[in-house]
Write a structure and sequence with these properties.
Layout lengths: L7 H13 L7 H17 L13 H16 L5 H12 L5 H4 L3 H31 L1 H4 L3 H12 L3 H21 L5 H21 L2 H21 L7 H17 L2 H11 L6 H14 L11 H11 L3 H5 L7 H30 L3 H13 L9 H19 L13
Amino acid sequence: MKIETKTIPYLIVLLYLFALSTIIYSFEAIQSAVIITTSILMLLQIRSGNSFFKSEMTSFLVSFFIICVIGLWYYGPKTITMLANAMLLFVIPLFSVYLYQLNRFLENKAKIILTYCYSIGLLCMYIVGYYIKDIPNHKFNWYFARFNIENHLHFHGTYLSLWIGVAILFLIDFLIKKKELKTYFACSLVFLMTFLLAGLIIINARMILYSTLFLSVLYYYFYYYKTKTLGNKKKSFFYLIALVCFILFLSQRYVEDIAFLYKNTLSNTSRYTICYCSLQTIYDSILLGMNPNSIQNNLNACYENYGFLELSRANINSHNQYLDFFLKGGILLFISFIFTLVVKLRHSWKQENYLYFSITLLFTFAFVTENILVRQYGIFIYVFCDIILLGGVLSDESHNGNKIKKS
């Protein structure tokens, strides 16, 4: 283990504040201050480190370098924000390898994760309460319910669902691995999971809902398959599948999706137009991308060309994180970003860290339908997960506390 520096106690406190800041999400300035201060203390850890660079970090650093070059070449109003976000997304999390050399972090890691889960749980309790209060207005229509909650909270449903989905995967990991829990604590976790699932159903973000449920079942299966105890858990495994089916039944959205596809084609949807215009804009500058300051203008021109004036007036972006990076940095940034995900998935799978594998897949799916990493709420949860978990898969396996132990 590495000798702790004087900044370590402050960094641990900040990680707790990082997790707790989800409760005061509306105060973005406070959340930003916590993120920035945490990042500075993460950077300071290199002073006492023996080594930093590993070959697995190449794609992260290349992505950061490409964004820096593009941002400085097309210097404009968005440049500083682009560089700061790139630093948070691709550089700061790499320093988490030092956290996994510290006993203090390893001792507090589970508590930090639970702090995050309980914070999201409180948020979900409020959502459930507001949903019940708002029944006379939405009359159990999921779309009106979500619309009213988003307007009341001033929080986009996709990002809120992503926060909840990550909390559910964290909690499933904790419940599966903890063999003995005190009764009152176990009850509180079940109570917490109930509200998390209720919040996920109420917000009803299609991709996040389906992905979270699928990955929860997948995690359960892989964990008990690897520990060779799946045979003893068949009954509970089928109960879990039944619960997932029940949740899908409660979610009215999948029924509407099937009905829509039966009566219409994808080419009639606004999503199709958004994707088509994004691809057409990419084709005009496929190698090196284009000026980040003019991407939205080019997309709006395409929307107007095909008669979707409402998309242009609303300044709708690509709604796909992969296409967003393709637009900003061309095929080079697109490939390097894909490789960052591949590194996470490959090493977490190799080390049997199914928690990080599941969370990375959740982001991978979410990126298909939303530009998650262009807003603070999306950057926040992405960076939080990487700071807490990435160091475990980039470090030696002996430091990986999430590795499955075979019985």
